[in-house]
Design brief:
The complex is a heterodimer of chains A (about 325) and B (about 280). By secondary structure, chain A is α/β, with parallel strands linked by helices. Helices cover about 35% and strands about 20% of the residues of chain A. The longest helix of chain A has 20 residues. Chain B has about 280 residues and is mainly beta. Helices cover about 15% and strands about 40% of the residues of chain B. Chain B contains three helices and 15 strands. In chain B, a hairpin with a 2-residue loop joins strand 11 and strand 12. Classes of the chains: A alpha/beta (about 325), B mainly beta (about 280). The structure holds zinc ion (ZN).
């Protein structure tokens, strides 16, 4: 943390095509005057940071989610805030190495702490916070729980000063933001990962910031609706995007192919639980075995699958 | 019923309020409430909730199943069961470290053959869960489990408040036929009720005041003319309350369910005689 991490020109992002793509556009140079976070330029004027695929901890400083920024002719939009104030501060420093244009917007893709804990830094830099119309209430309802549980996970120092700021401008449906010859199309979604999901499409480059509607490598976490998510995946496929910044996993991946792993996991979980519920299996027994065939395909499977299965059972038994 | 601990809604509310104070004073600040001090918390609850009555070891008479570690603290499955030969009339479930420890109190119907009730609860901390059975003669029998979970009660009740508001009061009854191990003498069913069972521990964004709790306080499940069980509920029963239970298998009868919540909303539903 104290030292500036040298940034490689090409990060290991999986598909070879993307590696080529990224070596063309390169990464944010680091002059090491202050700590900056590593952002890949995944398309011209579009940058993304890959957080660790791990549970938030003091070691990773809550840097466990992906986020990024888009630079227009007049202004910058940051999409998600990072999982702690130091992480957000280093992200702002990285933006400042790319451009001195104002950070006009901080767009939040959903309510989870790993995506919003850094909000204060961008708000203080003058950004207007934009999010789903459901985000304000969702954050308010969870604020005490989130702060308490993250104090345990990250340690109190990293949570000191964190504020769960509500959006200054809310979106219910779609909204286009202009950064100066650069239109970002924001869209909210029926309850899926959460009830506050919002995506951002950079129309110029065809890059989709999906928030946690797209997971890669990291097991998808269901904090909304399994059936809603499966429906949203069908609609997401129709978006005119060539690449996606997933909420967790590599900084960038081809789209819509990136939807396939999570669709497979969610469908497997649903199929297993539907069969268990049909057979009269109790929640605890069903949750212990559902989607076991997916275990080898994901990181953090044991950390999240039992909870996913428990919540999904309670959802599916009403169907 | 005269020996019942809770004789009415106001008494229940009073007990919940007393419990709330007791837990607020004694609950540890962190999530890692461990064994030390756990006994004092329980002793306080015995005084507040059970008027300090002596309790017998309930082993073999009442039993409680719960996971050692909860996968989802908002949905922790618990199974309450009784030895049908011991004439247990009332079962009270207490989650020691929850903000309102009395989760629910079930009264079993006379001759209904209910020996087992499974439900789901919110668990707010690492905590003991106690099950107290009251026999016909007033004797109290106790058993307990230690559960590791965190964040259940304080976590918001609903993942989709808009959807929850639209579906409040809907009910579903599933019938599973003969209960396992009953030799065909008891059948098994599951009652599901759509209700946010809001814990009231969430802040309103605008007023910054806590949203009042909104939960089911009274539930009656009857079959034909016979009451299978009644429940007086607290805020620790999970959203969309679910009860899976057994009952004496005899002639087909319709089920009648009635629930009343803290806002005095009444939800009633009749289910036709066991379909075959
Ligand atoms: Zn998330």
């Amino acid at each position: 943390m104290a030292l500036c991490t040298p940034i490689e020109g090409v990060r290991s992002v999986g598909p070879a095509a993307l590696a080529v793509l990224m070596s063309v556009f390169g990464s944010v140079p680091c002059a090491c005057a202050e700590d900056t976070l590593a952002f890949d330029e995944i398309a011209p004027h579009v940058y993304a940071h890959a957080g660790a695929v791990a549970l938030p901890s003091s070691e990773n400083r809550g840097d466990t989610s992906n986020f990024g920024f888009v630079v227009g002719d007049e202004a910058v939009a940051v999409i998600d805030a990072g999982g702690s104030l130091p992480v957000a501060r280093e992200a702002l420093a990285a933006i400042r190495r790319v451009t001195d244009k104002p950070v006009r917007y901080l767009i939040l893709t959903h309510m989870h702490p790993d995506h919003v804990f850094g909000s204060r830094i961008f708000k203080d830099a003058g950004a207007t916070i934009v999010g789903s119309a459901a985000l304000g209430d969702a954050l308010a309802a969870r604020s005490d729980t989130y702060l308490a549980s993250y104090r345990d996970q990250l340690g109190p120092a990293l949570v000191e000063g964190v504020e769960l700021l509500p959006p200054d401008r809310s979106v219910d449906g779609s909204l286009t933001l202009d950064l100066g010859h650069r239109a970002l199309r924001l869209q909210t979604w029926p309850t899926a990962h959460t009830n506050t999901d919002l995506t951002v499409l950079d129309t110029t480059s065809g890059t989709l910031f999906a928030g946690d509607l797209v997971f890669l490598e990291h097991l998808p976490v269901i904090d909304g609706s399994l059936t809603g998510w499966l429906k949203d995946i069908e609609s997401l496929k129709a978006l005119p995007a060539a690449r996606v910044v997933p909420g967790h996993g590599p900084s960038v991946a081809p789209f819509p192919a990136a939807l396939e792993p999570e669709a497979r996991y969610l469908e497997t979980l649903k199929r297993d639980l539907d069969a268990d519920i049909d057979a009269g299996l109790r929640l605890e027994n069903a949750a212990a075995s559902a989607a076991a065939s997916e275990a080898a395909n994901w990181q953090l499977f044991d950390a999240y699958n039992p909870r996913n299965a428990t919540a999904a059972y309670a959802e599916l038994e009403w169907q | 019923m005269s020996q019942s601990i809770f004789t009415g809604r106001s008494r229940m509310a009073a007990v919940l309020a007393i419990g709330l104070t007791a837990a607020a004073m004694s609950a540890p600040s962190g999530a890692k409430a461990a064994e030390p001090g756990a006994d004092e918390v329980w002793q306080g609850l015995v005084t507040d909730v059970f008027e300090g009555k002596p309790m017998q070891d309930g082993t073999g008479i009442v039993s409680l199943e719960a996971p050692a570690r909860a996968a989802d603290p908002a949905l922790v499955p618990v199974t309450l069961s009784v030895d049908p030969t011991r004439h247990i009339r009332k079962l009270t479930l207490v989650i020691d470290h929850n903000p309102a420890p009395v989760a629910a109190s079930f009264t079993l119907g006379d001759g209904a053959g209910v020996t087992r009730i499974e439900t789901r609860v919110r668990v707010n901390a690492y905590t003991d869960i106690h099950l107290v059975g009251e026999a016909d003669d007033g004797t109290l029998y106790v058993t307990s489990r230690y559960v590791k979970a965190a964040g259940g009660c304080a976590a918001p009740a609903s993942k989709d408040p808009a959807a929850a508001a639209r579906s409040i009061g809907q009910m579903k009854l599933r019938r599973f036929g003969a209960a396992e191990g009953s030799g065909g003498t008891r059948d098994e069913a599951q009652l599901m009720i759509r209700h946010p069972n809001n814990s009231g521990l969430q802040k309103d964004q605008v007023t910054l005041l806590y949203i009042p709790a909104h939960f089911i306080t009274e539930l009656t499940v009857a079959r034909g003319e016979r009451t299978l069980f009644t429940m007086e509920g607290g805020i620790s029963i999970s959203e969309d309350p679910s009860f899976r239970f057994d009952y004496r298998a005899d002639t087909p009868e319709p089920f009648h369910v009635k629930a009343v919540d803290t806002e005095n909303m009444t939800f009633a539903h009749d289910f036709p005689a066991d379909a075959s």
